[in-house]
Amino acid sequence: xxxxxxxxxxxxxxxxxxxxxxxxxxxxxxxxxxxxxxxxxxxxxxxxxxxxxxxxxxxxxxxxxxxxxxxxxxxxxxxxxxxxxxxxxxxxxxxxxxxxxxxxxxxxxxxxxxxxxxxxxxxxxxxxxxxxxxxxxxxxxxxxxxxxxxxxxxxxxxxxxxxxxxxxxxxxxxxxxxxxxxxxxxxxxxxxxxxxxxxxxxxxxxxxxxxxxxxxxxxxxxxxxxxxxxxxxxxxxxxxxxxxxxxxxxxxxxxxxxxxxxxxxxxxxxxxxxxxxxxxxxxxxxxxxxxxxxxxxxx
Length: 299
What we know:
The protein is mainly α. The protein has 13 helices and 2 strands; from the N terminus they run H-E-H-H-H-H-H-H-H-H-H-E-H-H-H. The chain has helices spanning about 5-25, 30-55, 60-85, 95-105, 110-115, 120-130, 130-145, 150-170, 180, 195-200, 220-230, 235-260, 260-295; strands at about 30, 205. It has a two-stranded parallel sheet. Helix 2 (about 30-55) packs antiparallel against helix 3, helix 3 runs antiparallel to helix 7 and helix 7 runs parallel beside helix 11 (about 220-230). It starts with a helix and ends with a helix.
């Protein structure tokens, strides 16, 4: 196991421990079925990682198993944290976000209406928006199987760093979404609102790892993902071209199909840019001791 992988597991364990404390303090709990499914998946991935690292060495398959395990564990831990943080029920900032949009000259209702008066445009943007989840699986698979373990490692760091900023910010600046603010939920389902409302009212007592909704409005994590996905594919022209088109459309979809304010998009892009820079520095520093050890004369 590389130093970078080990440090990330320590961070995941720390977030999980913080979740345990938060669950105890709030009197909430995780649904047992979801925890069992996650545990079974992680054990399977650990077994595959060990097999392809030690007994039947296959570097690319080992990277795929390790990457999948870390992403699965981290998203479960940080997703639980986002639910616990939402339960803090800080005052909503939708009015301020809408005012910030107006200050930029962006008319959210006009954009939403323009998109949804054109069914083909709306369908394309809907598909682009929901592409975030399959991309989150397919891009690490592509990177692992094409021998880009370093890019996979960098991507995991970027995702972890981004959410380390986004989740706490969502606690300080929670918002219900532009869909709710502009009262268009009769035209598009705000699927996050039942959990969002139940958490803020204190009526949700159980969190299901297999049925989590995206509760964060500001900053936009979809925007962060779009930037990180394109950056992850930059080494290969064809993959980069496909990723740029898909994620360019996803960026366009975020206000209307994600219920985000335009300022959410700006903030999400800024978070991604910072994460890319910091992740590179972290990887460089963690690689330095290993490089020094490799260069030192054998005793």
